[in-house]
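Reply to dn_fold:

You asked what the input looked like. This is it:
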Amino acid sequence: MAATLRPLDKLASGLAFLLGLATILGALASQYIGGLYPCELCLEQRMAYYIGLPILLGVLVLWNRLPLALWFALMAIATAIFAWGTYMASYHAGVEWGFWPGPTACTGVGESFSFDQLNSMTPVIGCDVVQFRFLGLSLAGYNALISLAIVVLLAFAMVFQARRKG
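and this is what came back:
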């Protein structure tokens, strides 16, 4: 049984990394090539990828050289970061659907508007404005699903590793 589980931990981690990398590259491409400007919550959601992917890459590169306790700690940190990203994306999708109010600074009802924003070349996008939907879901909705898939893959990798070492 251990021989069957052995590659699954690294496979799940690698798949999580590739899924995350494709997602952040897609977000950047939609901004710089597709012309979809991110709102404040969109930018906050990207932080999970900017922090979590380098940690995950480090784990993948140093896979056989890391002490098991450090491996589990780094994987738990990466999983927690992407769980936070899942929360942020779900919160943003809920703001877009009108399920709850968003931050006052980016939903058009805020008090913190700066006239410097009028002079900027980049348009200011409200967090409750959906610029693109596909099959009824916004990009925040897809990010919530993708982030959740990454969390599940990383959790599976830790379970597979624990079974292998146990």
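The first helix runs from residue 2 to 32.
Hope that clears it up.
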